[in-house]
Specification:
Structural class: alpha/beta
CATH topology: Rossmann fold
Bound molecules: guanosine-5'-monophosphate
Strand order of the largest sheet: 4-3-2-5-6-7
Largest sheet: 6 strands, mixed
Length: 176
Amino acid sequence: MEMYTPEALITEEEISLRIEALGKAITKDFENEDLIVICVLKGAFIFCSDLIKKINRPVSLEFISLSSYGDSTNSSGNVRLEMDITANIEGKNVLIVEDIVDTGLTIKTLMDMMHVRKPKTVKLASLLFKPVKLKHKVNIDYLGFEIEDKFVIGYGLDYAGRYRELPYIGMLNAGN
Ligand code: 5GP
């Protein structure tokens, strides 16, 4: 029978505690300010929905979709814009919410794309960061967890479209 219980790397409880702290920090940093949150699809959708519930500021939500990985665990080395946001971000505070920064190519491309549109500020929240493979300079303002160079799935992150629904971050081993 197929195995469908990948080993947990970060538990539901650990994620929830960390998101609570990130939400508090964001709330504090944006005191008296409104915020446009840009959720990077598809991987960040669960993180983003849990995070905005912990931000005690007026938030408007946008979605963007980029692709850098196909159905494999290796980066293809280029980033394509698949779906853009609909809001005008000029003069606005923007918080980009990403699932994971690996080489940094996706987020660097997205940051460059957003800066051209002249927002007031652009900050980045990323659930995960793998420093080992980083190739592009990326500043993560709100980081969930730094992890080793392992391919992770769950809590929004997939492998070939699967495992997004897992409530925790797991590791993909041979046999999963
Ligand atoms: P980067 O452009 O930073 O190399 O890669 C970022 C994107 O690659 C993420 O948004 C995510 O879609 C994918 N990615 C990188 N590492 C992993 C991983 O360990 N697991 C999964 N599921 N996706 C990853």
